[in-house]
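Inputs:
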Amino acid sequence: MTAWGSSRLWEEDEFLRTQIIEKLKTISRPKKYPDDTDYTSISLENIPSLATSFKVDSRKIEIIALEEGMVPERYARNMKTFSPEDQASLLKSQVSIVGLGGLGGTVSEILARTGIGTLNLIDGDRFEASNLNRQFLSTYETMGQYKTEAAVKRIKEINASITVRRYDEYLDDKNSDALIRRSDVVVDCLDNITTRFILENASKKAGSPLVSAAVAGLSGQITTIFPEDQGLKLIYGRPDDLKSKGAEASLGCLPSAVSVLAAFETAEVVKIILGRGPLLRNKLLIIDLLDNITEVLDLL
Amino acid sequence: MHVTLKLFATLSRFTPDSGDRYPIAPGTTVKHLLEKLGVPEDDVRLIFINGIKGHLASTLTDGDRLGIFPPVGGG
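Outputs:
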């Protein structure tokens, strides 16, 4: 495309953006937060109708609204902890979730409600009855379904503005580089130690930070690994010396511990994207819900 | 001399009654202590002393908080 062509395209985009902003201003309504401060709200129903009439994604409408200081009502209770600019950044970001069981099902739900714009879901497993104790996407109805299928359906029910990509494959040495392309963050929600090392390797190659959690019984741990960090070997030692399953083989995984660690993972994802708050790099946050323990330990 | 002991997950069954104030002799290492408690070395993945990563050969001192973890991988 010529320089002139690029410029013309940009002008057309700017023209469209101006039109969208004008329309948003006419449909916006003044509202008050619970602390009695004012904001300008865009209702839930108006987003898809605007997207249809301007022939753009509803996510694009939400981003433009936020950049202009207007708040799509679905994000109103995220506000002040997030600024409208923060919320727009989250909507522009992409997160890959590997494993859609206990951790991954909850992580995908929380990230969809938070307003992460693009979610890549990776898991080749299908639901079975033993998942029902802790995996929120497992129900009578979803037994036998791909976990990714149930996750896509749930995310779309929560937030249709989110782009969801579904990969019905188990991560392994052969497909990891293709599946783990560059994301703003990769979230390790796997159920075994061997595949966690494959995922760490692929995330490092892709240049993406990895948030990794694991559970056994009422205990568990979470850490964050940037590409240049030593990572999982600080926790598990050499991968060659390990069995694939840890203490969870005899203790199972309890829904309370799974949910707490999934919540910690999502908080870490948002902190990485917004560049805010101390991260768990070279640290391990451990929990034990039996003895009410939460502690951050130094790995170096 | 005493230490505070916390054994996590599958290792909790090796916790002595006096885990909150467990008596040790001067010069006791983590390895000595685990042997005394009957904890299989192969089941130990992480050792923390006062919140910082330690080793089997680390020598314990009075008032140390010792945390021992098996490998954990579920989700």
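Remarks. DSSP finds one helix and five strands in chain B. Chain B has one domain: 2-69.
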